[in-house]
Amino acid sequence: MFKNIIAPIQAWLLSRHQCVGCGTPLTKGKRIPTKISSQEKVICKCGRIFIFDKATQKYRRALFEEV
Predict the structure, then answer these.
(1) Which end of the chain has fewer surrounding CB within 10 Å, N or C?
(2) What b-and-e string marks burial along 12-42, b requiring 16 or more CB atoms within 10 Å of the CB?
(3) CA-to-CA distance for 44 and 23, rounded, in angstroms?
(4) How many domains does the chain have?
(5) Cα–Cα distance for residue pair 65/23, rounded to 1 Å
(6) Please, are residues 25 and 39 in contact by the beta-carbon 8 Å criterion?
(7) Whole domain around residue 48: which residue ranges?
(8) Residue 1 has what pLDDT?
(9) Would you tell me how many other CB atoms lie within 10 Å of the CB of residue 62?
(10) Is the dihedral of CA 33, 37, 42, 47 positive or negative?
(11) What is the DSSP string of 1-67?
(12) pLDDT tens digit string along 49-62?
């Protein structure tokens, strides 16, 4: 039940390119290139890790394997 409330808010924040934890713009995060050339790993100041897809210009939370 709790996830049903939080998921839409997190999706809205990610669509605005903001961190789901602290609300900081992800453009200010530390960017690290990944093995896939069309993606970058973005680390927010609060420690959350996101994946930025350059082709679609969208962010998503990193999977456990990607950390």
Answers:
(1) N
(2) ebbeebbbbeeeeebeebeeeeeeeeebbbb
(3) 10
(4) 1
(5) 24
(6) no
(7) 2-66
(8) 84
(9) 17
(10) negative
(11) -HHHHHHHHHHHHHHTTB-TTT--BGGGSEEEE-SSTTEEEEE-TTS-EEEEETTTTEEEEPPGGG-
(12) 999 999 999 999 99
Average pLDDT, the chain: 95
> What's the pTM?
0.91
Q: How far apart (Å, rounded) are the C-alpha atoms in residues 45 and 37?
A: 24
| Rounded-to-integer distance, Cα 27 and Cα 24, Å | 9
Segment 1-12, tens digit of pLDDT: 888 999 999 999
Q: How far is CA 27 from CA 2, 42, 59, in A?
A: 29, 8, 10
